[in-house]
Amino acid sequence: MAAFAAILRKDLRLEIRSGQSTIALFALSLLIMVVLVFALNPQPVDRARDAAAALWVALVFAGMLGATRAMIAENENGCMRALTLSPIDPAALYAAKLAAAFAFMAIVEVAAVVLITLFFNLDFGGDLARLTPSLMLGTLGFAALATLLAAISSRTRAGDLLLPILAIPLFIPAIIAGVKASEAALSGFPLAAASQWLGILVAFDVLFVTLGALLFEHVIRED
Amino acid sequence: MARLVVETRALTKTFGVTPVLREVGIQIHDGRCALLIGGNGSGKSTLLRILAGLSQPTSGDAIVFGENSRNLNVAGRRRIGMLTHQSWLYPNLTARENLAFYAELYGLADQNDLATKWIESVRLGASANDRVREFSRGMEQRLSIARAMMTEPDLLLLDEPFAALDPDAVAIVGDLIRTAVARGCAALLTAHSQLDLGIEMDRYQIASGRVMPLRDETRAPHRSRMGA
What is the nearest CA distance from A84 to chain B, expressed in angstroms? Predict the structure, then answer.
């Protein structure tokens, strides 16, 4: 637990000091919103659906960038080898990297929710609060998957290209569930109306977190 | 009686079809220092990575603390201190933050005090609160050596520890290695040429992936004394 806390604290300190990931993720989210608002020209009747889709597009791209940045810091100066040699459980290392990616994404999502409210002319209020479960579950699942895949892709030459190719197809079912749950929340339906979609997100979270914890050790180990 | 810390048996490593290490067999006991001499690309770093469990041999075994390095457990990893060509330091953290982070990772107490003590030991006290990004290559090397030794390991794997160091730093690092070996640590150093730490060393030469013991008469005539 001490090692988990040490790695997470170090990642957050590095991010606070440089601000690179958060600023880049926020800028990316803003650009995505601008493009989608102009492309979709959302009408009142479709507003909730379009806003939910835009939010998840931002979430997925921000997640890939965030997970990649968290792993780049470890590969600079070979620090990942130091962590591999240190007496910490690889699952604890994975959990710390996952927690850092989750934190970066969550910060950006707060900004993204404000942006979609403004760009899609939504009301600030209870509907936005009802977004929280689907967004948190989606963020956890995508951070879990992207952290594992970023560890793989960061060791390859074309890693930046490899990550979306690997991550998005695997995450498509969760994206569909997330968009549907978010659309229900933004349309003013109660949480129970999206329970089946939230259930799918929970299942993917369990799957990706478990896979990540089990496979991370093999992913970071060299041949 | 000296205990065997490192033993390799017919250790072989190939990258693709290129052999890097061939049937390597070495032994290092506690309280002994071994020097592995070889040119660029001779396989020195690969051997150190295998001993640390960071890389897997193609065939043969590397036994470290009685365990196969393929499956080094947490207790075994805790007893290894390693220096590589990469510093394993975070450029955007200060020297003190870097060492305190590793101290916490290894479950050591009083991390900040310990970090300060080791920063002083490599004469970087004036730069303790500077970010590593601002360090020269030699300063980074000294801090990296402090990182490797801070945990008081039972096995030191030091890949070219004197590279990029000025004569004063060479003397400081030489002292630290001698102190570690005197307290019973086993050490494996690599270098491009002979060096003299002022202590008895088991010397090996590595060429074309083969490791051969060096006898006294095969030593190079010009040896530099490191800080003794």
Answer: 7
Contact yes or no for B93 and A73 at CB 8 A: no
Burial B27-37 (b: 16+ CB within 10 A, else e): ebbbbbbbbbb
Domain positions in chain A: 2-220
CB contact under 8 A, B88 and A222: no
Q: Per-residue pLDDT tens for B138-186?
A: 999 999 999 999 999 999 999 999 988 999 999 999 999 999 999 999 9
The tokens describing A88, both together, are 């910490």
Q: Is B113 helix (H, G, I), strand (E, B) or coil?
A: helix
Contact with chain A for residue B134, Cβ under 8 A? no
**Interacting residues of B41 by C-beta distance below 8 A, sequence separation 6+:** none
The DSSP secondary structure of B132-173, one letter per residue, reads GGG--HHHHHHHHHHHHHTT--SEEEESSTTTT--HHHHHHH
The answer to whether the CB of B102 falls within 8 A of the CB of A87 is no
Residue B218 pLDDT > 50, yes or no? no
Give me the pLDDT at residue B223, please: 53
Helix axes B137-149, B167-182, angle to 10 degrees: 10
Query: Which residues contact residue B103 at a Cβ distance below 8 angstroms, ignoring those fewer than 6 apart?
Result: B111, B114, B115, B150, B151
DSSP state of B213: E
**H or E element at residue A207:** helix A195-220
The region that residue A124 occupies, defined by phi over 0 for left and psi between -120 and 50 for alpha, beta otherwise, is beta
Which residues on adjacent β-strands are paired with residue B18? Answer: B15
Q: Residue B6: beta bridge partners?
A: B28, B64
Q: 3-class DSSP state for residue A18?
A: helix
- Which residues are paired to B81 by β-bridges? B156
**In whole angstroms, what separates CA A76 from the centre of its chain?**
22
Do B89 and A73 contact (CB within 8 A), yes or no? no
Q: Could you report the predicted ipTM of this complex, rounded to two decimals?
A: 0.88
- What count of other Cβ atoms lies within 10 Å of the Cβ of residue A131? 21
Q: Helix (H) and strand (E) counts for chain A?
A: 9, 0
Neighbours of B151 (CB within 10 A): 21
pTM attached to this predicted model: 0.87
Q: Which residues of A touch B49 (CB under 8 A)?
A: 222
- B88 at interface of A, judged by CB pairs closer than 8 A: yes
SS3 content of chain B, % helix, strand, coil (to 5): 35, 30, 40
